[in-house]
């Protein structure tokens, strides 16, 4: 588990090995990412979001500065 804290806001990343998912929580929301082998990405089907884009968005909102992963 990885936790980022900034003031009262918290972002948590956790692996769920039994169901082969990565869970991300932050800003009172939660995402469940599954690995898409054909695209080589972690993707949340319900939200139609890619893991690193979602994490960058959460960090940017909480830190007040642009964050990106390349």
Describe the model.
It is a single chain. 19% of the residues lie in helices and 47% in strands. The protein is an alpha+beta fold and 70 residues long. Strands 1-2-3-4-5-6 form a six-stranded antiparallel beta sheet, covered by helices on one side. The longest helix has 13 residues.
In short:
By secondary structure, this protein is α+β, with helices and mostly antiparallel strands. 19% of the residues lie in helices and 47% in strands.
Class computed from helices, strands and strand pairing = alpha+beta
**How are the strands ordered across the major sheet?**
1-2-3-4-5-6
- Taking all residues together, what is the mean pLDDT? 92
Strand content of the residues, in percent?
A: over 45%
Largest sheet: 6 strands, antiparallel
Q: Would you identify the regions where 5 or more consecutive residues have pLDDT less than 50?
A: none
CATH-defined topology: Metal Transport, Frataxin, Chain A
The N- and C-terminal alpha carbons lie at a distance of 22 Å
Q: Quickly count the helices.
A: 1
The first-level CATH class name: Alpha Beta
State the shape: globular
**Count of folded domains:** 1
What is the helical fraction, as a range of percent?
10-25%
Radius of gyration based on Cα positions: 12 Å
CATH superfamily: Frataxin/CyaY
CATH architecture: 2-Layer Sandwich
Order of helices and strands: EEEEEEH
The count of DSSP E runs of length 2 or more, i.e. the number of strands, is 6
Helix and strand topology:
Elements: E1 2-6, E2 9-16, E3 21-26, E4 29-36, E5 41-44, E6 49-50, H1 51-63
Antiparallel strand pairs: 1-2, 2-3, 3-4, 4-5, 5-6
């Amino acid at each position: 588990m990885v936790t980022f804290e900034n003031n009262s806001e918290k972002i948590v990343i956790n692996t769920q090995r039994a169901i082969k998912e990565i869970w991300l929580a932050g800003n009172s929301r939660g995402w469940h990412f599954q690995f898409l082998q054909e695209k080589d990405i972690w993707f949340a089907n319900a939200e139609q979001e890619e893991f690193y884009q979602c994490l960058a968005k959460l960090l940017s909102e909480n830190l007040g500065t642009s964050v990106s992963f390349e």
